[in-house]
Amino acid sequence: MSEPTLRSFVIGGAGFIGSHLVDRLVGRGPVTVYDNLSVGKPDFIRPHLESGRAVLVEADALDLDRLRAALRGHDVVFHLAANPEARWGLERTRLDLEQGTIVTFHALEACRLEGVRRFVLASSGTVYGDTERVCGEGDLGVLPISLYGASKLAGEALASAFVECFGLQAWILRFGNVVGPRGTHGAALDFLHRLRTAMSRQPAGEKVELEVLGDGRQSKPYLHVSDCADGILYAFDRATAPLNVFNLAPPDTTSVARIAELCIAASPLPQATIRYTGGDRGWPGDVPRSRLSPERLSALGFRVRQKSDEAVRLAVAELAREVFGEPLAHRLRFE
Prior knowledge:
By secondary structure, the protein is of the alpha/beta class. It has helices at 16-25, 46-51, 64-71, 95-114, 147-166, 187-201, 225-238, 256-265, 295-299, 308-324, and strands at residues 8-11, 31-35, 54-58, 76-79, 118-124, 134-135, 169-175, 177-179, 209-212, 219-220, 222-224, 243-248, 254-255, 273-276, 291-292. Strand 1 (8-11), helix 1 (16-25) and strand 2 form a beta-alpha-beta unit.
């Protein structure tokens, strides 16, 4: 007996993680991608648009009326839209309020008004604040220290309230640092772009330095985007409580220094050196070291395929091919 068709609505579905999720959802039924394309790219989902398995609505979720109209008639909302780069909030302090908290409220309110009962929220390990202990889903004793983390925690609280007050069912996934192809932000992509810029600006034979914020010892759990998309759907398919909260991350971490080393090795500038700016964190609001316990999702039977170092190595190779336009990154397999 075939599975029933799932009509999925993906806010932020033309972005990095969202497009990988759409790759999987189109096999379950029709998909509507709702994206303002501030960061997302139609090319990320082009094959699905051309096949007719997905449609793109280019609009902002701050427009509640437009969001309601587009969302009507779907079975589930996957909400992945957010400010993609935590540092941007330092200069645009309304960004996380608008694209995080308010957009999440609009998504939930549209579900309530249009009778869509299932809601999946992409959250973040930043909700755990600045702590070096391994954090499980019940560990929220330390508050977030970035505007991005604050908006994620606010979104989680709104989802919980809508579940209790209006009968929605919700899944909250707290991601580690997600890496992989189609990336639009993050340390690895930033390092690779800096190296590409150095190629065009540095005179031949001149020493090239890669600047790395902090002391390089910052370490976080890095999750490959393929494991991220698979983990979202695994939790959605198997967790049945009204409110389901899971960490989605590998159990280990990778240092910024290691990411920088891998990026240099994957670039046309393997002799480049690293210059650290100093300090224990990259920028105000950055959590220098974090670890997330994956045990709750593991108890359901899900395991990531790549641990943190493996995810970073694979992602750097994939991103290097995108940035440099040639298969330099094969070197990483032999280190």
